[in-house]
Design a protein that fits this description.
There is one protein chain. By secondary structure, the protein is an alpha+beta fold. Helix content is 44%, strand content 12%. It has a five-stranded antiparallel beta sheet with strand order 2-1-5-4-3. The longest helix has 18 residues. The protein starts with 13 loop residues before the first helix and ends in an 8-residue tail after the last helix.
Length: 287
């Protein structure tokens, strides 16, 4: 740790913290933990040797030594991932290693999840009468409550492949006419989708969605080409609801720590008139 200005919290010396973290995680592992045969002679220090970590991670022994001596190295994302696997890091430890090396964590589960985590699905149901739903990074809608279905669309009547917020806004006629400021909603949605696309370059389903929308929708293609990016999880939307008339909602999008590929969206009425409209919504089916 290095001292900061008077009254300020000390700054983290990330090189030294990375060195100590890697060394500590190496020393806690037994060769049997990583499938290595036990050594015939006793060890002077606990855990794996640097040579063994280097072999498991596919890097040189000198590289591991320099990392553990805080000699100014900043490992690439590929090396960080290799070290995380070699040291058998937990998801929390893996995220910490990525934070220390200033890299965006890769999704350890690969492609986007296609079902809502059960605790999140239960929370969505418990949040009613507030409209709420769970999405993944592609904005596929994975779970929803009755109020969200009444507010937007009865998702249960749609094929699972079409339960996608961006596709609904662009290609589903009832939803296309729902928003008062549709141009802004679409522009922000495309910017959010591009941000997700850049963060998940290996997601073929997301790439396929972008390709489909670019081909079939001129508005999407034009906005996509502008390369705007956005990651704002808070805002307002005014609507013309076909059954209860005009209303406006404030929304908040939250990312659970245990399910970082999923997002929980919660809506609230923006004013008393909108609350009265929400109260008049017919009950639709929850997920």
């Amino acid at each position: 740790m290095t001292a900061g200005p008077a009254g300020a919290a000390p700054a983290v010396d990330t090189a030294r913290e990375l060195a100590a973290f890697l060394r500590g995680r190496r020393e806690r592992l037994d060769p049997a933990d990583v499938g290595l045969p036990p050594h015939g002679r006793s060890r002077r220090t606990p855990g794996l040797r640097r040579e063994e970590v280097a072999e498991l991670a596919g890097v040189s022994v000198d590289y591991v030594v320099r990392l553990e001596q805080a000699r100014g190295l900043r490992p690439s994302a590929d090396v960080v991932e290799a070290l995380a696997r070699a040291l058998r890091l937990t998801p929390e430890e893996r995220a910490y290693l990525y934070d220390l090396t200033r890299h965006r964590p890769r999704d350890p589960d690969g492609p986007a999840t296609t079902t809502a985590a059960p605790p999140l699905a239960r929370l969505v149901a418990d949040l009613s009468p507030l409209p709420a739903m769970v999405m993944n990074h592609r904005y596929d809608i994975l779970a929803w409550n009755d109020r969200m279905a009444s507010l937007l669309v009865d998702f249960g009547t749609l094929p699972p492949a079409r339960r996608n917020a961006m596709w609904l806004c662009l290609a589903h006629p009832p939803t296309r006419g729902l928003y008062v400021d549709r141009a802004r909603v679409v522009r922000e949605g495309v910017a959010h989708l591009r941000t997700a696309w850049a963060a998940h370059p290996d997601d073929r389903v997301l790439a396929g969605l972008v390709a489909e929308l670019s081909e079939r929708d001129e508005e999407f293609a034009r906005l996509w080409a502008e390369r705007d990016v956005r990651a704002n999880g808070r805002g307002s939307k005014a609507m013309r609801h076909p059954e209860v008339g005009p209303l406006a909602v404030h929304f908040e999008v939250l990312m659970p720590l245990r399910n970082t590929d999923q997002r929980l969206m919660i809506c609230r009425a923006a004013d008393d008139g909108s609350q009265a409209a929400l109260d008049r919504l017919p009950v639709a089916a929850a997920a």
